[in-house]
Amino acid sequence: MTGKIVSVRAMEILDSRGNPTVRVFVELDNGVTASSSVPSGASTGENEALELRDEDAGRYGGKGVLKAVGHVNRVIGPEVIGMPAFRQAEIDRLMIELDGTPTKANLGANAILGVSMAVCRAAAIASGLPLYAYLGGPGAVHIPVPQMNILNGGKHADNSVDLQEFMVMPVGAPTFAEALRYAAETFHALKKILSRKGYATSVGDEGGFAPFLKSNEEACEVIIEAIDAAGYKPGTDVAIALDPAASSFFEDGVYNLSKSGQGTKTSSEMTELYRDWIEKYPIVSIEDGLAENDWKGFREQTEALGGKIQIVGDDIYVTNTQFIARGIKEETTNAVLIKLNQIGSVSETIEAIHLCHKAGWGYVISHRSGETEDTFLADFAVAMGGGQIKSGSASRSERIAKYNRLLEIEAELGKAAVFENPLAV
Questions:
Q1: pLDDT value at position 355?
Q2: Predicted local confidence at residue 215, as pLDDT
């Protein structure tokens, strides 16, 4: 079989926030060429794979990625040339060994992931298959339900809301196309409501609104109002998912809800707060409701609330099998957020998902706050079959690109496409 790598090169491009990131081009001996672009996170876990930056204050405020680009061109490229592109795990393992650190700190996770994704896409093209089918096989037919970010607080907004993301999940839609419509119509209804109330309707990094709301509760209330205004039933057609990103307001052993003026709370008090909200609002999923090192608190939260809703770990796991295995053993959560650039290669990300599968846990395939127009994430979500994706709001083209790709995939699969609520009991 042809399909051996003959060329690997990288360049510095800009992500959706105007910061540099890495794009990698791979060419095979059969003439196939492919490229992939690496996303970048703002709210990052302390154990994430390292995104290598130049630290040169004279370029892009120190955020340049020429070091990572150089590592692709001069270190990784020469080592993988001549290898068959379909040997994904072998190529990824070789890059990990070349780096030699637990967090990919030498070569940079952005260098390694760029090559990993581009090789994967090249192999898919060479095989004559769409990326989702190449990665997932004939069973890759499940189109994910979006967790659409429509309202922001925390680090993503300058307002009185402590929690970082308020999302809508169109759980009652019959197809992805209809789900996207439900969510987009709710987004537009929310804009009108915010405008009528005199709130700002500018959008943040992921396309959600960041108005100066009075409280965390008001965020839930205006979303319910928007769901109603769009003509849908809260909780039945469209539900709410939260990403508090609690590490961002965890200080000196307590959770400091300073933005909303709700004072400090312990882990158990935060869980009680979420319990109250679950009873009042149609919340079906909470991600990072506690801080990344609060393993005991997470376990207690899952024991208390996990029978009712999805408890998702992000910063606590950073898509790392070592941490996910501990979480499964200790019953820390019942779901995991999956981010390709948290661990830094396609095959390691798949290994993390396999652990979730084995444990019967849910998993959500996620974008980052710094994105590109690359649609790899959409195909990956279908290939992995988890049934949930975070790709931002119904605005900003780097977010919409993923949703539009999912529309294409659903249309391509036709009657074989499966769309269902992954949180239905």
A1: 98
A2: 86
Residue 206 bears catalytic tag: yes
3-state class of 384 per DSSP?
Answer: helix
Among left, alpha and beta (phi > 0; psi -120 to 50; other), residue 96 is alpha
Q: For 247-259, how does the pLDDT look when each residue is reduced to its tens digit (9 = 90+)?
A: 999 999 999 998 8
| pLDDT-above-90 percentage for the chain | 91
Residue 344 has pLDDT above 70, yes or no: yes
Strands (E), 135-273: 145-146, 148-152, 165-169, 239-243, 250-251, 254-257, 263-265
Amino acid at 353: I
Asked if 321 contacts 361 with a C-beta cutoff of 8 angstroms, the reply is: no
Q: Which residues pair with 265 in a beta bridge?
A: 255
The predicted model gives 227-244 an average pLDDT of: 98
Check 191, 339, 390, 402 and give the catalytic one: 339
Residue whose C-alpha is closest to residue 36's, from 129, 117, 112: 117
The whole-number average pLDDT for the span 25-38 is 98
**Of the residues 27, 51, 165, 206, which is catalytic?**
206
Side chain identity at 191, as an amino acid letter? Answer: K
- Per the model's pLDDT, the better-predicted residue between 45 and 214 turns out to be 214
Best CA proximity match to 363, nearest among 349, 374, 376, 373: 349
Which residues, 6+ apart, have CB-to-CB distance to 251 below 8 Å? none
* Ramachandran category for residue 122: left, alpha or beta (phi over 0 → left; psi -120 to 50 → alpha): alpha
Report the SS3 class of residue 209.
strand
State pTM to two decimals: 0.96
Report helix, strand or coil for 36: strand
The residues pairing with 418 across neighbouring beta strands, listed in sequence order, are 142
In angstroms, how far is the first alpha carbon of the chain from the final one?
46
Measured CA to CA, the distance from residue 251 to residue 248 in angstroms comes to 8
List residues bridging with 255 in a β-sheet: 250, 265
Residues 403 and 146 sit within 8 Å (Cβ to Cβ): yes
Indicate if the alpha-carbon torsion angle 262, 303, 173, 393 is positive or negative: positive
Q: Give me the residue label for tokens 């042809």.
A: 2
13 vs 38, 180, 332, CA distance in Å? 10, 29, 38
Query: Residues 319-341: pLDDT tens digits?
Result: 999 999 999 999 999 999 999 99
Q: Tell me if residue 218 is catalytic.
A: no
CA distances from 47 to 43, 171, 311 (A): 12, 32, 20
Average pLDDT of the chain, as a whole number: 95
Length of the chain, please?
A: 425
User: If you average pLDDT over residues 10-19, what whole number do you get?
Assistant: 97
